[in-house]
Amino acid sequence: MTQHSQPYSHQTPSTTTPPVVLTIAGSDSGGGAGIQADIKAMSATGSFACSVITAITSQNTQGVSAIFPIPLDHVESQLDAVFTDLNIVAVKIGMLADANIINVVANKIKQYQPKHLVIDPVMVATSGDLLLEHAAISTLKEALIPLADIITPNLPEGAALTGKPVPNSEAEMNAMIDDLRALGAKAILLKGGHLENDDSSNDLLITPDAVELIRATRFPTQNTHGTGCTLSSAIASYLGQGNNLHKSVHLAKQYISQAIAHADELDIGQGRGPVHHFFAGHANVR
After folding, report:
1. Catalytic residue among 40, 108, 141, 191, which?
2. Per the database record, which ranges form the Pyridoxamine kinase/Phosphomethylpyrimidine kinase domain (predicted)?
């Protein structure tokens, strides 16, 4: 007896248009920070991530052993490729490695004018490795930071940007506020995670006319690789979804806190492991 298969019924699948968010940063071969962390964070928080790679690092949970900056013409061609095709509503900028790359990126940001720009001024890795040449810091301050909606320095990065000592207390964080405002970004999130003697991990959200202390629980884990990349990417993701800056920062802070809280569920590497970007499964984190 011959069996006849049912005719194939073609149905057009429904389509979605998630906000497209671009990360411009270095690659982390260990997968816990940089471009890899950015894409995970943007995806976990409900956006579509695209990328421009500025440098390739030889990196793992124990540190950075080599950095290879991408040739300038290829950084430029990557930027043109994504901006001329994709509807990019928010951009996160991380590791840029040197002054020439900073200038290329700044010129393209001015050319394409994305709606939102988040800059994580990556200078020092969690492991203590220097990721930005000293001579390039002034270029970052002059060419790129004034274009930002928000910058997200940690305490060593805040010190490098302002010339002040690394804060050892909330009072010393507050003493840095005026110098950070003078950099020209619309807002600053000064991250207090390096104050390890505090029971909480508190950040300062600094705007032109206000300073808000954002408190969060400090979790006892060594698995904090990529926290800065993850937080700034989540802020860009939430901005891209139409949230205002204040709400985006608070949602991103909630996301990174949970990613850290669940970090010990992962057993990755022999050093400082990554945070758990997908602690909530593949559902959007709201």
Report:
1. 191
2. 28-276
Question: Alpha helices of the chain — where are they, by DSSP H?
Answer: 34-44, 72-83, 99-112, 134-139, 155-162, 170-174, 177-181, 227-240, 245-261
**Homologous superfamily of the 20-265 domain (CATH):** Ribokinase (3.40.1190.20)
Percent of residues, the chain, with pLDDT higher than 70: 88
Q: For residue 92, indicate whether it is catalytic.
A: no
* CB-neighbour burial class of residue 128 (10 A; exposed 0-12, middle 13-18, buried 19+): exposed
The amino acid sitting at 10 is H
Label residue 211 left, alpha or beta by phi (over 0 means left) and psi (-120 to 50 means alpha).
beta
Kindly give, in sequence order, each residue whose CB lies less than 8 Å from that of residue 256, ignoring residues fewer than 6 positions away: 227, 230, 231, 234, 275
Q: Compute CA 116 distance to the chain's CA centroid, rounded to the nearest angstrom.
A: 13
* Residue with the larger pLDDT of the pair 7 and 130: 130
Token reading at 107: 């010129």
pLDDT of res. 267: 87
Q: Among this protein's residues, is 191 annotated catalytic?
A: yes
The predicted-structure confidence for 155-164, as pLDDT tens digits, reads as follows 989 998 998 9
Please give the average per-residue pLDDT across 267-283, as a whole number.
82
CA dihedral of residues 121, 232, 87, 96 (deg, nearest 10): 20
Q: Give the CA count within 13 Å in the CB-facing half-sphere of 93.
A: 27
Taking 60 as the threshold, does the pLDDT of residue 139 lie above it?
Answer: yes
Q: For this structure, is 228 an active site residue?
A: yes
> How close are the terminal C-alpha atoms of the chain, in Å?
55
Q: d(Cα 100, Cα 17) in Å, to the nearest integer?
A: 34
Instruction: Assess whether 15 carries a catalytic annotation.
Output: no
Instruction: Catalytic residue, from 228, 230, 240, 253: name it.
Output: 228
Note if 224 is an active site residue.
Answer: yes
Q: Which two tokens stand for residue 200?
A: 């909480």
CA-CA-CA-CA dihedral for 285, 277, 272, 34, to nearest 10 = -110
